[in-house]
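Hi L.,

You mentioned the student needs an example of a multi-chain input paired with its predicted structure. This one should do, with 222 residues in total across all chains.
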Amino acid sequence: QKEVEQDPGPLSVPEGAIVSLNCTYSNSAFQYFMWYRQYSRKGPELLMYTYSSGNKEDGRFTAQVDKSSKYISLFIRDSQPSDSATYLCAMSGNFNKFYFGSGTKLNVKP
Amino acid sequence: DTAVSQTPKYLVTQMGNDKSIKCEQNLGHDTMYWYKQDSKKFLKIMFSYNNKELIINETVPNRFSPKSPDKAHLNLHINSLELGDSAVYFCASSPLAGREQYFGPGTRLTVT
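Structure written out for the whole complex:
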C-alpha cells in the first residue's frame, strides 16, 4: 500500500465550477500537509500548507485535513482556465521525509 | 529574484557519461532536497541535507552522489548514466526539516 493515494484524473470541469481534490494516507504520524500546483514543464509551486487537522483558506483555495479519516482535500472556488494544472498533495510527520501523491490533472474549460 | 535555481535546465547525454546538476537557494533555508519525477509525475525523494549534513539517503544507486558545499547549495553528480535515469530532477529547500518545501524549476535529463 502506498503511503499517499491520489486519484490521477484527469478531472475536467467548466469555468466557474467548484473543484474538489483529495488524498488519502495511511500513516497516522503525518501532521504537516501541503498542496502543490504544477504546470506542465515547471516545478511544483506551494499552494497551501496546514498543520494537523482543520481548515485553511487562502483566496479561492481551501485546504481541509481530517486526521481521523486520514483524508485531505483542496477546494478551488470559481475555477479558472489558469487553474488547469496537476495538483500534488504532500505530507510529512516528525521527520524530514515528505511523501507525495501521484498528482491529479485538472482541466478547467472556458 | 529566483528563490531556488537549478542548472542546467535541460541535459541530453549518452549512456555511460558522467554529469552534474547544480542547485542554489537564496531563501536562507537550512534544508535542501533532491527529487526525481518520472514520466507519470510521481515525485520521489532521493536525498536531503540539513545544514550541509546528509539526513536522508533513499534507495538510490550509488552512481548518484550529492554534495553540499554550503547550506545554500546542493549539487547532484551522476556517474555512468543509464537510460532509466531519464527523468526530471527537482531541487527543493525548506526552512526546517519536515516543513513546507519550495521547488526549483527542474532539470530535464535525457539519456540516449
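You could point out the following to them. The first strand of chain A starts at residue 4 and ends at 6. The two ends of chain A are 37 Å apart (CA to CA).

Best wishes,
N.
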